[in-house]
Specification:
By secondary structure, the protein is an alpha/beta fold. It has 21 helices and eleven strands. The strands form two sheets. Strands 1-2-3-4-5-6-7-8 form an eight-stranded parallel beta barrel, surrounded by six helices. Helix 7 runs parallel beside helix 8 and helix 14 crosses helix 15. The longest helix has 18 residues.
Length: 506
């Protein structure tokens, strides 16, 4: 009896996002696309997460065009994207009409499988996206954001998976974004899910940051996991994922043998080994196993960005202090999983607490909104004293945050006007107005701007917009202007704005 495990390769999204700061261009994906299409993967993850805004921000590319161009070269392989629930591919909640139209157009452009997660594991923030994917004829892969801490247990994650199954999941993803799952925890969780969810397929996604991912994948395979995530070897390990070829070789000749051609995989790996050299300047500088992720539960992408931000502030010597402060802030804010946008929220507050010498002396507006429930329901209660410091006696909302948002598509159409050539352009603007408008202006003028200039243009445009609106622009003390776009709210004593890229963006 054969029961081959299926493979989803992440090289076109999470592989280069984790190792090369999401800088791989579509033109470097296309020459190898036909060989990837011949492998026989269950799916290839190639869109979503941070790739959407990075395409416009750094690469001067239309993110929608990437899907269309790759689909032309890869007609046989299902495409998977990472969707941040009500956050879509952004860092805040968006209205339901924007979410619905995004899913409809993503499906029409070639996305087959939507991996949907919420940073707080709040099913309310995932359910509407799941409904829209179903309606558009896509596959709903509902993701559990895996982490550790007092609120979390095997029972917690199994209960969450049951909720997701009840609201229409076609498969369940265990999303271990920091590489925290141990081999035996993976075995037990998969075994329980397979027993209690019946025929619903289960996938394990685990980063290699801690050095445990390959062992965790193998134990999950033993427990009956249906699908596993890997990355082609030349863009694997460190903060990426276990190497595809190694896992295929380990399972060869067993009843779970995926049956993939190691020769073809070797050709693909050789191609990306050459391509990776082009992006050497974007390497994080973190190699091998990072034990800090086990002690502080900080994803690799968050660590590398933290080092960079502190270095630019001349405060690299405070690194260990900030590392120690992150789990303290996380506990006080109700133990959120550290994944976009909660990783940015926690990381920014921890950095401010250390650099300013007084905890919660300055509170970003996003932290305040988090405490008031505008990102969803925290997994555990927020520390009452910290809550008092941040919001005083103001009470959190108790509804789904997006219920409070007015429709956004018509407004986006009106604002972007003739610069938009399609509904996809309007969606890009609705999600990232400060980035999309200059991108479309350059496109209309037939100009291409080198990648590093794009972020500066977007930042300048935002600053001009805020200045015209009468809101003075200031740069928060915890990060350089390139990372912060913060404004002082008169009378509030708080900064608005997030430390861009401070967390492992997933």
């Amino acid at each position: 009896m054969k029961n081959p495990v299926k493979i989803c390769d992440l090289v076109l999204r999470d592989g280069h996002q984790s190792l090369l700061a999401t800088r791989m261009r579509t033109d470097d994906m296309l020459p190898i696309a036909d060989k990837i299409d011949r492998v026989g993967y269950w799916a290839v993850e190639m869109w979503g997460g941070a790739t959407f805004d990075a395409a416009m921000r750094f690469l001067d590319e239309d993110p929608w065009e990437r899907v269309r161009r790759l689909r032309e070269r890869m007609p046989n392989t299902p495409f998977l994207m990472l969707l941040r629930g009500q956050n879509i591919v952004g860092y805040k909640h968006y209205p339901d009409d924007v979410l619905e139209r995004f899913i409809v157009r993503a499906r029409a452009n070639g996305i087959d499988i939507f991996r949907i997660f919420d940073a707080l594991n709040d099913v309310r923030n995932m359910q509407r996206a799941m409904e829209y994917v179903k309606r558009a004829g896509g596959h709903v892969q509902a993701a559990i954001s895996y982490t550790t801490g007092p609120p979390y247990s095997i029972d917690y994650f199994v209960g969450l998976a049951r909720q997701l199954a009840d609201v229409g999941a076609d498969s369940i993803c265990i999303k271990d974004m920091a590489g925290l799952i141990t081999p035996y925890a993976a075995y037990e969780l998969v075994l329980r899910l397979k027993r209690e969810l019946g025929a619903l397929p289960v996938l394990l996604h685990s980063h290699a940051t801690s050095g445990m991912s390959t062992a965790a994948l193998l134990k999950a395979v033993e427990a009956g996991v249906d699908i596993i995530d890997t990355a082609i070897s030349s863009l694997s390990l460190s903060t990426s994922h276990s190497p595809t070829e190694s896992v295929v070789a380990m399972l060869r000749g067993t009843e779970r043998d995926p049956g993939l051609d190691l020769g073809l995989l070797a050709e693909i790996a050789a191609y990306f080994a050459r391509i990776r050299k082009k992006y050497a300047r974007f390497e994080s500088g973190m190699f091998g196993v990072d034990v800090n992720v086990l002690q502080y539960q900080i994803p690799g992408g968050m660590l590398s960005n933290l080092v960079s931000q502190l270095r630019e502030q001349g405060a690299e010597d405070r690194y260990e202090e900030v590392l120690a402060e992150v789990p303290r802030v996380r506990a006080e804010l109700g133990y959120p999983p550290l994944v976009t946008p909660s990783s940015q929220i926690v990381g920014t507050q921890a950095t401010l607490n250390v650099l300013l010498g007084e905890r919660y002396k300055v509170v970003p507006e996003e932290v305040r909104r988090y405490v008031l429930g505008y990102y969803g329901r925290p997994p555990a209660p927020i520390d009452p004293q910290v809550k008092q410091l941040i919001v005083g006696d103001e009470e959190p909302i108790d509804c789904r945050p997006a219920d409070l948002l007015p429709p956004g598509m018509e407004k986006a159409w009106q604002e972007i006007g003739e610069l938009a050539r399609s509904e996809e352009d309007v969606l890009s603007y609705a999600l990232f107005p400060q980035i999309a408008r200059p991108f479309m202006e350059r496109r209309a003028q037939g100009k291409g701007v080198p990648g590093p200039v794009v972020a500066a243009i977007a930042g300048a445009w935002l600053e001009q917009t805020e200045t015209r609106s009468g809101v003075p622009v200031a740069v928060a003390p915890a990060a350089p202007a390139s990372a912060w776009k913060a404004s002082w709210r008169p009378g509030s004593g708080r900064w608005t704005g997030l430390l861009a890229g401070a967390g492992g963006m997933r």
